[in-house]
Amino acid sequence: MNGFLKNIMKRFIHQPGSDHPIHVRVIKMIRRNGNKYSIKDVFTFDEYSTYYPFLYHWLLSFFFFKTAINSPHLIQWAINLLKLIFFNIFLYSIKLHYSFDVLDCFLLNLVYLTFPFSYTFWNAKNTGLSARGFGLMFGQIYVYFLYHYLLGNSDLLFFFLIVSSLLVILSSMMALQFITLSAPLISITFNEPEIFLIPLISYLLFFILFNQLAKNHFIGVLNYYKNYSKYYAEIFIFKHRPNIYRDFIKDFWIQLTNQKITTINKIKYIFLNPLIELIHGFPYLIIVICVLVAKGGDYGLIETKLIASVLFVFFLTTLNPLRFLGEPQRYIEFIIPIVAVFFVIKTTLTIQFFTASVLFIFIMLISFFTKNKKDGKPDIQLLLDYLDHNFNHKDVLISNDQDFLKYCSPILNIITTDTSKLIKSKSELLFFNKSYYGCLTPESLIHLSQKYKPKVLIVNKIMYSDEEMHHVLSKINCNKIIEHNDYLLLNIIPK
Fold first, then answer.
1. End-to-end CA separation in angstroms for the chain
2. Which of 237, 222, 327, 247 lies closest to 282, judged by CA?
3. Residue 295: is it exposed, middle or buried by C-beta count within 10 angstroms (0-12/13-18/19+)?
4. 209: burial class by Cβ within 10 Å (0-12, 13-18, 19+)?
5. CA-closest candidate to residue 413, choices 36, 40, 86
């Protein structure tokens, strides 16, 4: 029975990806710091300006450290349960407004739980430890307060909007982007100019309460956005998918006719286009839009205006200049509760049961296929075990493979690309990145080794040519410890 319950708890929480160790690293850093609400060097040793929000990690380090390390899926399920509880509190708060009965509440919960996008395999909130679900929860709480404020303005609700926005700043960059981008649109749509002030007031409050932390956050985030919009998008985002709309004209067909690409990867490329994912990830939203268009009217309702405002944010962030602001479909996720309410209000009982049943089967099928796919995690356990037994968090590791560094980050300090430091030119970008994001050039590896004097070097041989390997090993004085698969683990000898 215990094993059965454990399997149920792990359902839809996929194997931890490369982001999971980073979260373990942050939790351990806070723990070593005496649980103080202050850390630095989150992503790399000698980080220019630490900007990553860590309320999630602080809470886990303080109250749930063992659970977070040993059973991360329990943390994710606890957050999912909290989201469901807050949704039902919201339903209770609007019960009189809509006269929901017991059956309506059951259907609303069923709809809320059967949005396919909530279980997508690529989202880090479904793969081990991640602050995404935590940020989503606070983002949805902000939406609940916003809904009530739009129903009837009050100073108390405005105060709660400020507080929830501040919690978002401390919790999630994506949720903060959602509030910041949607606030002006909602202000205009509802003719409520004070909503535009919410992110500004909450950020000012952030500066007052967390002085130095807020300064670092502001500088780091500003540099991060500049770097991604001007440089990283080209080698990270656009290299994988040049244009979301061009897919339909050209790139889908190129993928389908390319014999070098596997059938699975072709399907995945099409399936994960944000416009396609809007359809299969949020079918309740598509049905609501169709009902509104077919019947005409109801465009003045709060739900309609909120959905329209966030849809506008979605379409804005599908445009190449704004794609650095994250996956567009993740903005829709914050208004899932509003879509669920509107769907139940505007459709019949038959449509509701039928749609929920079909989507439940769809979610189960997607979960089955993604659970049974071959694990993409590199075979590096031998290397991790050696590092764990021979080094500690004060020792510094360098590698050309930045994704590999994530797995090592809970054990040692790591040196990687610092996204919080402003890139001044394209030549600087190319000096550090070898044709694609995630691989340091031989020149930058040598430069960082000379600058920071790390103890350990790990080279992913498949990323370098023989000439590049020879160049690195001739400039960095080191001894080979382990050669495992494509990886070479070396001890750097100080000069």
1. 59
2. 327
3. exposed
4. exposed
5. 40
Residue 433: closest CA among 241, 239, 220: 239
The Cα 441–Cα 323 span in angstroms is 26
As given in the structure block, the two tokens for residue 364 are: 């189960």
Q: What is the mean pLDDT of the chain?
A: 89
Q: How far apart are CA 423 and CA 67, in angstroms?
A: 39
Q: Are 60 and 68 in contact (CB under 8 A)?
A: yes
pLDDT surpassing 80 at residue 9: no
In terms of Cα–Cα distance, which of 4, 131, 111, 156 is closest to 57?
A: 131
What residues does 456 pair with on adjacent strands?
A: 397, 491
Most confidently predicted of 69-83, 118-132, 175-189, 229-243: 175-189
Between CA 287 and CA 306 the distance in angstroms is 16
Residue 278 has phi, psi (to 5 degrees) of -60, -35
Residues 221-272 have pLDDT tens digits of 999 999 999 988 888 888 889 999 999 999 999 999 988 888 888 999 999 9
The predicted model scores a pTM of: 0.92
DSSP 8-state assignment for residue 242:
S
Using only C-alpha atoms, the chain has a radius of gyration, in whole angstroms, of 24
Query: Is residue 158 helix, strand or coil?
Result: helix
Residue 196 burial by CB count (10 A; 0-12/13-18/19+): exposed, middle or buried? Answer: middle
d(CA 107, CA 152) in angstroms, rounded, equals: 26
**b/e per residue, 410-423, with b = 16+ CB within 10 A?**
bbbbbbbbbbbbbb
Counts of helices then strands in the chain (DSSP H, E): 26, 5
